[in-house]
Amino acid sequence: NHKIQFLALAIASLLGACATQTYVPQPITPAQSEAGIRARSLDSVELRDYMLAQGYPQASLPVTAWGLHELTLAAFFYHPQLDLARARLREAQAAMVVAGAKANPGVAAGVEHHSRSEGGISPWTLGFSFDIPIETGGKRAIRIEQASHLSEAARIEIGQTAWQVRRDLRDRLLDDHVANEQITVLQTETNIRGEIVQMLETRYAAGLISSTELGSARLQLQSAQQQLQAAQGRSAELRAQLAAAAGLPAPALATAKLDPALLHALPAWEQLPAEANQRAALLNRLDLRAALARYAAAESALQLEIAKQRPNITLSPGYSFDQGDNRWSLGLSLILALLNKNEGPIAAASARRDTEAASFDVLQASIIAEQEQALAKYRAALDEIAAAERALQSLRQQQALTARQFEAGYSDRLELAGVRLETVSAERHLLSRRVKAQQALGMLEDALQQPLDETLLPDLPGMKEPHA
To answer: Which residue has the higher pLDDT, 17 or 56?
Structure first.
């Protein structure tokens, strides 16, 4: 009886030691989440502290005009995609704990009572045994290595996500600036065309022009008015898209003053990154580093499947008290590789490694193409801007000359309005060339994954490795 009690107590103690953590529910409350999103603001103290922690000058706070750098800081502070990337990193880091865990030993116990007992021999048989698993082939170390590579990929993905957030933010900010410039130009064009229509109506009333000429001018005015209304209507939509790119609700950015410097900041061709820096991107881009980490994880996975050809061993020492007799035993078990030697999983892991290698080659080739296309596009845009600026300068000189002729009585008001209209058209053309150049710059920045103005990005995991 004492032996039975001891055995029961030992089992109860082992079972009690297994429970070390308790479940804590964390329900999601949609209403509370929505309220938190809508409460986000550019004026929050938390955002201000974050900007200061990232090296933003205290003398420049509060921000009077939000440019790309300031909005990038806000986006890195608020954007939910970065929270998701951080959560995935924690998940990958937890997988490392799982990979490094050693298999727990098992215990088995049993009690038997014999109905017959002779010569004073105890009718009880008590026994217990342990199962001690032993991994062979270094499988645990390989699992840890594989999980470490995947964790590194997840860490780099935070930086990659942050860059994608900045890229989208830059595109949306450019759209907002372009929309405002277009509204200004269209408003000027509409005013000029309105003046032309008024002058032509006077001439038509005097019988100096035909109704066809007046009707054509009215149609052109109507078209300009419709374009202006469309641009004004789209302005609010573009500002809401910009707010979303910064991780903010639309009202938080609706009345904010934006710095328009992005549209006009066009570096000369000689100021672009040198060929060595462009080549460094082919070796150190965030997505390339993540792809290398995934390839290394695929190699570890293949190593693990090959190591599984060596069976694990389970040692089973045991003891039993059999009707007064003490018995000790030692068992050994393993799986015999008779029907297969893990060929299928090895082939699958090998194919997966080949896929990761091919994906890396495709990615690197696409980066080379991105750089070459962006450089060619930007060079062409600079040439087009130079030509558009020359044309605009010539028209402005012509407008000034026509204005002097008008004051001297050698030209009429309609002729002056026509020259002004040509100047506005040239301004629209120059704006479109500037947009093309900015798009090429954005494409080049994306190919290099670094700001061309050498602005320091916020300190996020995966982004601070230097380009070699």
So the answer is: 56
200 touches 213 (CB < 8 A): yes
Sheet holding 106-113, edge to edge: 106-113, 124-134, 313-322, 325-334
Whether 172 and 241 have beta carbons less than 8 Å apart is answered as yes
Distance CA 10, CA 22 (A): 23
Among left, alpha and beta (phi > 0; psi -120 to 50; other), residue 419 is: alpha
The Cα–Cα gap between 245 and 144 comes to 37
Helix axes 45-53, 68-78, angle to 10 degrees: 110
Question: Model-level pTM?
Answer: 0.83
Report strand pairing: 106-113 vs 325-334: unpaired
What is the spatial distance between Cα 360 and Cα 235, in angstroms, rounded to a whole number?
40
State the Cα–Cα distance between residues 399 and 405, nearest whole angstrom.
10
pLDDT tens, 143-174?
999 999 999 999 999 989 999 999 999 999 99
Euclidean distance between CA atoms 245 and 169, whole angstroms: 5
